[in-house]
Amino acid sequence: MKPPILITIMFTMVAGTTIVLTSSHWLTIWIGFEMNLLAIIPILMKKHNPRATEAATKYFLMQATASMLLMMGIIINLLHSGQWTMSKNTNPMASTMMTIALAMKLGLAPFHFWVPEVTQGIPMSSGLILLTWQKIAPLSILYQISPTINPNLLMPMAIASVLVGGWGGLNQTQLRKILAYSSIAHMGWMAAITPYNPTMMILNLMIYIIMTLTTFMLFMHSSSTTTSSLSQTWNKTPLTTALILALMMSLGGLPPLSGFTPKWMIIQELTKNEMITTPTLLATTALLNLYFYMRLTYATALTMFPSTNNMKMKWQFNTTKKMILLPPLTVLSTLLLPLTPLMSILD
Amino acid sequence: MTTHIVFVLSTIFVVSFVSFSSKPSPIYGGFGLIVAGGIGCGIVSSFGGSFLGLMVFLIYLGGMLVVFGYTAAMATEPYPEAWVSSKAVLAMFITGVLAELLVACYVLEGNEVEVVFKFNGAGDWVIYDTGDSGFFSEEAMGVAALYSYGTWLVIVTGWSLFTGVLVIMEITRGN
User: Fold this and answer.
1) A-chain residues within 8 Å CB-CB of B166?
2) Between the CA atoms of A227, A230, A234 and A235, what dihedral angle is there, to the nearest 10 degrees?
């Protein structure tokens, strides 16, 4: 894509999300969603092959349907409350439609089927934008309507998302599909805490974005898209191997690393609201996620798979790939746990 | 003008939507779009918005739909599916029309339908009062407000349309 066009498209994508984040009028929020959707389609189709076209089409159809549902919810809200601002969406039908529309945009179960297929059909860098930047706008609207969301609707979707994200990722060897199922599971965690303490949802989103950004960049650096090519990173850049180990443990939510902070905070907030079964269920099914992260770690850092001799000389060449911001991001995604007492400023 | 004109027009509106939602080939679907556009203009005009109704005819039908019609004619297939030539399309069309006739009869009988909001039958749509805007038509005031208070909206909408064209050119580039 020629640079001026790429700049325009990227600007529109960022502008769409910014308009969603900063609007008080429901119509401009909807316009922001549509601008974002329109602008990301050519980014998904950077390589013009039929797989990318199919992925872009699936993404477009799902998101357009969700936007239509959101518009219906907005109009029903207008009919019953008489105004276009965010403050009073107390009509249950409007609130339900908006929640379902936002769940479709995020890829929460049972609307999760598009996430692995779209992520698999697009290049790694497009998948990066899809799984991190595109989650910000719907989650900000979920944050703003969180007082009036029906928890009986959102909690089953959240629990189902964590389950689907865990079980779906178990049989995958393609890295993009693994990251897609990981995204579904993390969205489930975020949706679970939204009716009770939306601030923790923002915390989870921030840490999830940092970790996923780092993961994608490490995978892009070693140009690996499958587990078997990831198992050759010990030969390309041995340092990346160690970083992938730490990062996968952090994504799985293991304690001394920063991925544990959002899970800990979410379980704490849920138990403060006298829910016992839900956080137990969430924590237990997050183990499924941990299993396939561990499998990636095992293949990458803990084992050397047999390979032919001509695959053993890549370390001799200098890398020319640019790794923007990779060191700070890696530090942020693994070492933030001691800063958890800082969360008290959020009260 | 009868008080039920809006009700009749909206029933035909829904039927024309059904006619292209039952997925015939795009050339035939375009016909449904034309009818829907014309009826929409009628509905908007019967609420006093004569300017916007004629805008629909001029810009939507006469600009965008003409372009759609020509591109559909360029991309046509050798054996297009009409409504009667394919059993699937015919079945979907009949289902949609039956559902709409059911709702229409329900409204005409009971004079009130409550699905999501209370729809008080056809009489709900007659304009009884003129609002307090005095001698100015509300619709012309709305269009004027778009260019004075709604400048940001015009900028955003214009940018979105420009981006739409850019995106379509990028996607269909092919190399």
Assistant:
1) 5, 8-9
2) 120
